[in-house]
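cron nightly-structures :: item 1 of 1
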Amino acid sequence: MNNINPSLNSAFKYGFGFFETMRSIGSRIIFFDEHINRLNSSLKYFDLTEVNRNEILEEIQREIKIKKFKDTRIRITYSLQNDKPLINFEFSPYRNPFPENAKITFSNYLLKHSDELRKHKTTNYFINYYEYQKATTLGFNEVIFCDDRGHILEGSRTNIFFIFYDKDFKNLQILTPNTECGLLNGIGRQKVIEICHQNNLKVKETTITHKQISRAKEIFLTNSLHGIIPIVISNKKHKMPITQKLKQQFDHFFKI
């Protein structure tokens, strides 16, 4: 691991950096190429030197063998130090912070509509971290942000999906906020959309308001480490059949 010099490091001093978190089960790194491709896409957008996929892979595999964790959370952080790229790796045992059925709240802090910066996974995470800490203190598991036009965007570390249907699942439709509103196109989000298409489930990326979601029959979050996270939407017990079907298929990514 390269040493960070606080007085010279761009991420430490200014929040100017990028990161990816991923999970390995045994020696298999889940969605590795997707994470590296997203990181390099951001680096290219900001005219920065891209990382070498094979070098990153070798370093991660070497550390996994040393750590001997069966299930590992991996974080890669890219920053600048002395104006040169610095890559740091963090490894820890994987832990799922979400309960079986999670609770969400909405932040009062409104984000700018269609903010290009939020489409990149940067180390400028102040508001995400602060609002998440406030939410957990109040007993919630995640906080959801909206923009200044009243559109629902994403969670502090998740994307969000809403499922609508009538009796006997007629007119079933799955909605998720459009990335053009200014949000990260999460790896888990992408995988769920693929699963929906494979199952001929109608999924639409669009603008979503609070008024619309009051009719949602099911809500779930996505995260590439934790998969699909069902959300409690009432005090009544709710089986959430569509969410569970999607979750079962997503969980196959985590099988050894």
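cron nightly-structures :: done
Helices lie at 10-14, 32-45, 53-67, 126-137, 187-198, 210-213, 241-250.
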